[in-house]
Structure formats: C-alpha cells, structure tokens
Design goal:
Blueprint lengths: L1 E6 L6 H11 L8 E5 L2 E5 L8 E3 L5 E8 L2 H8 L6 H12 L9 E9 L4 E6 L8 E4 L3 E5 L2 H6 L9 H8 L15 E2 L4 E6 L2 E6 L14 H19 L6 E4 L4 H13 L5 E6 L13 E2 L3 H10 L3 E6 L10 H8 L9 H13 L4 E3 L15 H7 L3 H10 L6 H10 L5 H10 L16 H6 L2 H7 L12 H13 L2 H12 L3 E2 L5 H9 L6 E2 L2 E2 L1 H6 L6 H5 L3 E2 L5 H7 L1 H11 L3 H4 L4 H9 L10 H24 L6
Parallel strand pairs: 13-14, 13-17, 14-16, 15-21, 17-18
Antiparallel strand pairs: 1-3, 1-9, 2-3, 4-5, 5-6, 6-7, 7-11, 8-9, 8-10, 11-12, 19-20
C-alpha cells in the first residue's frame, strides 16, 4: 500500500501526520514506513517484501504498488536485470515518460511527486489495478491505496456516500470515480491525474474500444497466436515465484492456467484448491449447471501427475467468516459475500501449504474463452447474412429456431421498451429487482433514483438482448474490474499471499479483443477459440462441457441451518435506523421465514432473494454498523 500527503502552503504539521500515515499502512503486523521529502509525507507498506519507493534522476520521487506482469521483458529491454517493481517502473518513466504505460503491462498504481513537490501525478494501469483514492482542498492533497489512510490523518471526516451505497445494492458499479465515502474520489483504471494547488485534473489514456484490429489469413493462425500469448503470460507472471498454487475449478479458464503453468514448470508440483459442496449436499437438476467440480479437476490431475488437488468444503462457514477483517482491510462492502468463505479458505490453505503466489483465471471469459455473445447483431450490421443464418441454424434445437431469430436477430435492434413489449407478448415475466435479487428498501431506492441511474449508465437489470460484442464485453469488464481493485488487493494483504491472473495479461487481452468475434463462435460452437487452443492440453470432458459450474452450490443447506439465527439478526437490525431505512428487512425476513424444506420448491424470485439479496443485505448492514463503530458484527 502507498500514500502521500502534501500541504501546498503550511508544512508545519507534516511531522505529526507522518506516523499516522505509516500506521494506517501497517500490513502483517508490521508498520508502514514514512518519510518527508519535498514538503510531502510519503508512506508505504511492506507487504511481500516489495520495494515501493524509488527516486528518479530528475529528483522526482515515486511510490509504486502492485505488479508488473511483463517484468522479465521490461528488465531486459531497460537493462535492469535485478530491478524491483518500483525501480523498473521508474526506469520505464525515465525512458518513455508518460508513454511508459504503453510498454509496461501489469496491475499497478503509482504516485509521482514532481517538480520539487509542486505537482503530484497519479497513474492506474488499465484492465486491473490497485485502487488510488484521493482527497484535496485548497491547502492539502492526500492520496492513498486505502481510504483508511486518508481518514487516519484526521483531516477528513469519514462519511459513507449514500449514493454509492444505494447503487451498490442495485449492482450498479459503473461510476468508477465515485468512492465509498463523501469527498473521497477514486482514480479510474487507465487514467492519470495531475494535482497542483489549483486542483486535480483527471484524464484517460486508455480505452478498450481503441484496441486495433488483429487479422490473419487462416483460422489456425489465431489459435497459434493465442497459444503463444497465453504461454508468454504464464511465463512472465511466474517470474520471481518458486511455489505457485492455483484456485482451480472445472471451467476452461483456471484449467487453462493450470495446464500452461505445469507445461512451463515441467516436473514441479502445482497445488490446486477447489471449492466443493458439503457432504450433506445433493446435486439439483438446475438446467445447464453443475455444482460439484471434483470430477473435472480429477480428470486434469490424471493428465498431469504434477497436479496436487485439495478440496475446500468450507465446513460450517457462513457470511460473517473473516468479514470484519475484510471491512478493516478494504473499507468496502463486498458484492459477493456469499462466496467469500471458500475464497478465504483457499487463500488460507495455500498460504499454510507454503505457496508464494495464487493463480486465478478470473478474466478468461472476457479473453481467450469468450463465448461469442453479441455476434449475431454484429454480423447483421455487417450485412453478413449467410454467416448470421448459419449461426442461427446451428445455434440450438431446430424447434427453437424462431425463438433464436427473435432473441438474437430482432430484439437487439429494438429499444428497451419495445423489447419488453415483445417479450411480454411472448409470455416473459420480468422480476422486479426489489422483489428478487436486490435488498434495497423501496423508499431508499426511489430517493436515490437507483433504477434511473442504472438505466442512464447503460446497466441492464432486466435481461434484455445483447446489442453487440463490444458493448457486452465493456459492461462485463466494468462490473468485474471496477470494484476489483479494492477486493483483490485487500484479499492479498489480508492473507499475506499475492495473486496473479494470466487471463488478464494485457497483451493477451488486447489480442483477444482485437481478433474477429467469429473466432469465438462457429456453426453454433461457443468458445471456439478456447476449444481449439486447449485441445490436448485439458481433458476432453472439459472441452465437451456445455454446463456452467455453480459457485457455493450448497448455499441452501448452509442457509437453512442458520435460519433462526438470521431471523433474529434481521429483527435486531430493524431497531437500527441507519440500516432499516436502507434495506427491506421485512421482505428479507419473510423470505427466510417461508423457506421450504427443499431448494427445488423455491420459485425463481424466492431463490434470488435468499441466495443473493439476503447475503448482500446482511453484508451491507454489517458494513454500515462497522463504519458506525459497532463491535457486534
């Protein structure tokens, strides 16, 4: 973690403020380090032994956090064979100036104190990045990778941003610059900011819509290039690590990361950790999904003797597991609270087993294993009628051809209102988010205009037609990464274990966004690029799998076992005005109180309330109480 505090005028208080910043950046029981340079306090944490401070020949001072994914390549190009991340980024700035971001691939954030302290430059990498929060007035500027450091100075009052809270309950994370607290902004990914006594000016230097097209003559050329880039990604990201481990599922993405890792480290054991349901869970007949991924991981282990699978059942873990620690580390309300118990346990197990990095495949669905969603409207806009007809014909059962025509060739060209009218005539029922997956109180939702803001930001909450490949990917990218900087790096720090995602490697992502969307779907075969690329590298059952794995598939029996305790907590929360005015506690209570004996008896809306709205509501309620200083969460 990093932080900077500068007083544009009176610097007399800097010596008193430096210890507060260093204490706020303590990690793993070790206090951060702080120094005063150019009339500013510069502080950094000491996680993973990384150097975070560097000096440029110009006299500028650099604070750096995160990781450079292509560090071996950058060291060779810049002639810095043993450079740390901070020194390597400093060398890149010296060589290329602000164009350094075009050469450095990674998930990082940087603060540069320039011109003898008269100017501060902030940078966040695109795609993924640690967060940079900032607050300024006419006298001071505070920048930090955790908002806690800003409040630790005593110069800023900690007040939660009610609009952010409301939007989060409606799963609208599109406003990236809005942080969780009033007056404290967040630098977007792929952006720079220049701060002077006159104020802070933000500019964007990166947009995924500007990625240039990539075109080859033959289909196999696309596979060969993707294969080479994936291998490069794994090689580059493993640099400096001796004992990698992987969070492994039955899906294409983490299976690919595991396979390429074992090919890169021939003969070296790879520890894998897979979340599996409790022993008293039984598979449901939910169409197109499966809840136990052991068979898929076991099949991969049969191909690679180096793989050492571990199964993470989560025992009797529930929502409060490590929750307060996460609040303290990140100062955010996580959106996926119901899944976090097994993510914490995977981190803990990997750390205990001696892993020095945890690999994931979180962005694979947006990169090499994209399924081609949005291809049909794009083909029609390009007047490629023959190819569009082929995809419609081969895209599913012949008896549902008319349905596919309407859904993929007609609806994308209609307005949202027209789409809903057509779907209603065809018997579709639209669940109101406030009656299903959102726990927000209707009056709070109306006051904060969450539905209007969601529509205005282009976030679809009613499952309307996908209009294009680019719009779909851009939306998913924003949802996946906007809050990811807080959560990913909070989890790294909380468990003392860094993580890396080879599927988010910027050269690979840009390649996958640049190639024709037809490489992802052909004659109804989705994930066509990944299936060709992974042939012979992962088990055949993975390549033939068309179902989706369900995370936390045993949620119903976990919830059922705590039914009475949850009702008590909801009743107790009704007496807290900060909570009861924001969450529809009565609806959540009714949903828990009327739980049937089996999951199969749930209606879709009831299931969404229990599996989604309840965990989001309780997580938010506990976060509100945590911020108010309550110790009873």
């Amino acid at each position: 973690m990093i932080a900077l505090l500068t007083r544009w005028g009176d610097q007399s208080a800097l010596c008193q403020l430096a210890p507060r910043l260093s204490a706020a950046l303590s990690e793993g029981g070790r206090a951060g380090e702080a120094s005063i340079q150019h009339n500013a306090v510069l502080a950094h944490g000491t996680a993973f032994g990384e150097q975070s401070l560097a000096h440029l020949p110009s006299g500028d001072v650099l604070l750096f956090c995160g990781a450079i994914d292509n560090a071996p390549r950058m060291r060779a190009e810049l002639g810095c064979p043993a450079a740390s991340g901070a020194d390597l980024y400093a060398a890149a700035r010296l060589r290329w100036g602000e164009d350094a971001e075009a050469h450095v691939a990674g998930a990082y954030a940087a603060i540069l104190l320039q011109d003898g302290g008269k100017r501060v430059c902030l940078v966040r990498s695109p795609i993924q990045a640690p967060v940079l929060y900032y607050w300024s007035d006419a006298e001071s500027l505070i920048v930090a990778s955790t908002p806690g450091a800003i409040f630790a100075t005593g110069l800023v009052e900690r007040r939660v941003d009610q609009q952010k809270l409301a939007d989060s309950l409606y799963l609208n994370y599109s406003e990236e610059e809005r942080g969780w607290f009033e007056g404290v902004s967040r630098l977007p990914r792929g952006a720079r900011a220049e701060a002077t006594p006159e104020g802070v000016r933000v500019s964007h230097y990166y947009d995924i819509g500007d990625i240039p097209p990539v075109r080859f003559k033959h289909d196999q050329d696309y596979v060969d290039a993707a294969d080479a880039l994936f291998a490069e990604s794994v090689e580059q990201m493993l640099d400096g690590f001796e004992r990698p481990a992987i969070s492994l599922s039955g899906g294409f993405d983490s299976q690919a990361v595991a396979a390429y890792t074992m090919r890169a480290r021939r003969g070296q054991d790879l520890m894998s950790y897979t979340s599996v349901p409790r022993d008293d869970w039984q598979e449901s007949d939910a169409a197109g999904t499966f809840g136990d991924e052991r068979a898929h991981v076991t099949a991969l282990a049969a191909m690679y003797p180096e793989l050492s699978p571990r199964w993470i059942t989560g025992g009797d873990r529930e929502l409060s597991y490590c929750q307060r620690e996460l609040f303290e580390t990140a100062l955010v309300a996580p959106r996926n609270g119901a899944n976090l118990y097994w993510i914490h346990d995977i981190r803990k197990a990997a750390k205990a087993d001696g892993a020095d990095v945890l690999l994931t495949g979180a962005l694979g669905n947006l990169t090499f294993s994209y399924d081609g969603t949005g291809l049909l409207p794009d083909l029609l806009r390009q007047r490629r009628i023959g190819r569009a007809g082929s995809e419609l014909w081969h895209g599913g059962p012949r008896r549902k051809l008319a349905h596919r025509v309407v859904a993929q060739a007609v609806l994308p060209f209609l307005s949202p209102a027209q789409q809903r009218a057509v779907l209603r005539k065809r018997g579709a029922v639209f669940d109101d988010p406030l009656d299903s997956w959102s726990p927000i109180h209707p009056e709070f939702a109306a006051d904060m205009k969450v539905a209007e803001r969601s529509i205005g930001s282009g976030v679809d909450r009613f499952g309307l037609a996908i209009r294009s490949v680019e719009s779909f990917r851009r939306t998913l990218m924003g949802n996946a990464a906007t809050e990811g900087g807080d959560m990913m790096y909070a989890m790294d720090r909380l468990h003392g274990l860094p993580s890396r995602d080879p599927t988010a490697y910027r050269p690979l992502l840009e390649y996958c966004f640049g190639i024709p969307a037809t490489q992802y779907r052909k004659r109804g075969v989705t994930r066509w690029l990944a299936r060709r690329m992974l042939a012979g590298k992962v088990p055949e059952m993975i390549l033939k799998e068309t179902r989706r794995g369900r995370q936390a598939a045993d949620w119903f029996i976990r919830l059922k076992g705590r039914r009475d305790a949850i009702i008590d907590e909801l009743d107790w929360l009704t007496h807290d005005p900060d909570v009861s005015g924001r969450l529809d506690l009565q609806r959540l209570r009714r949903a828990v109180e009327t739980m049937p004996e089996s999951q199969a008896e749930l209606t879709p809306a009831h299931a969404a309330t229990l599996s989604l709205a309840l965990s989001r509501g309780l997580t938010t309620a506990r976060f509100i109480r945590f911020l108010a200083g309550r110790n009873d969460i």
